[in-house]
Amino acid sequence: DAFAPCPQRLGLYAVLPDAAWVARMAQAGVPTVQLRFKSDDTDAIAREVHAAVRAVQGTPARLFINDHWRIAIDAGAYGVHLGQEDMAEAPLARIREAGLRLGLSTHGYAEMIRADAVSPSYLALGAVFPTTLKRMATAPQGTARLQAYAQLMRAYPLVAIGGIDLDKLPGVLASGVGSVAVVRAITGADNPEHAA
């Protein structure tokens, strides 16, 4: 059973720390946004997820919720994004039956094959370049390897992630991915709307 599809080209994909950022970037016309809200407080998580879902209403933005799949289902989000560990633990059938799209993180061939087995809505390929945001277990993939991955997984919408900024964008897009995810290139910019 495949997950609900999403567009082959998800375009600019902004990964954002809270609902206020989601609102800002949805208003700025960013086509795909992800709420990556880190907290141990379940109530705070629920508030942020529900606020983020409200924030994209009336905009064309597609909202993915990182990790918090239960609350994403309750709130009626467009989709959820899971890492490999979360993928193993989450009840994927439940997420699929709720009609949510599923994005999965992959780092290399083995993880791509594992992700392909569950027919997600899109695959994230990373980290393309070194990133300071997460301790990565795998070395940066670089654009040559990204191109090989993009060729292999071309049946899916593909999102390149990891250390991508404006200068690196042309090389990344040349790989054939239909989307580029950025974090600091937007949240760390002097003018995030302009950067987007």
Description:
α1 runs parallel beside α2. The termini are far apart. The protein has 196 residues and is α/β, with parallel strands linked by helices. The protein has an eight-stranded parallel beta barrel, surrounded by five helices. The model has no long low-confidence stretch (mean pLDDT 96).
Keywords:
alpha/beta; eight-stranded parallel β-barrel; 19% strand; 8 strands
Q: What's the overall average pLDDT, rounded?
A: 96
Distance between the termini: 35 Å
Treating each run of at least 4 consecutive H or I residues as one helix, how many helices? 10
Order of helices and strands: EHEHEHEHHEHEHEHEHH
Strand % is 15-25%
- Spatial ordering of strands, largest sheet: 1-2-3-4-5-6-7-8
- The count of β-strands is 8
Based on Cα principal axes, name the global outline: globular
Q: What is the CA-atom radius of gyration, in angstroms?
A: 15 Å
Structural class: alpha/beta
Q: How much helix, percentage-wise, in residues?
A: 25-40%
Biggest pleated-sheet summary: 8 strands, parallel, barrel
Low-confidence stretches: none
Note the topology.
Blueprint: E1 11-16, H1 19-27, E2 32-35, H2 42-56, E3 62-66, H3 69-75, E4 79-82, H4 84-89, H5 92-97, E5 101-106, H6 109-116, E6 122-126, H7 142-152, E7 158-161, H8 169-173, E8 179-182, H9 184-187, H10 192-195
Parallel strand pairs: 1-2, 1-8, 2-3, 3-4, 4-5, 5-6, 6-7, 7-8
Helix pairs in contact: 1-2
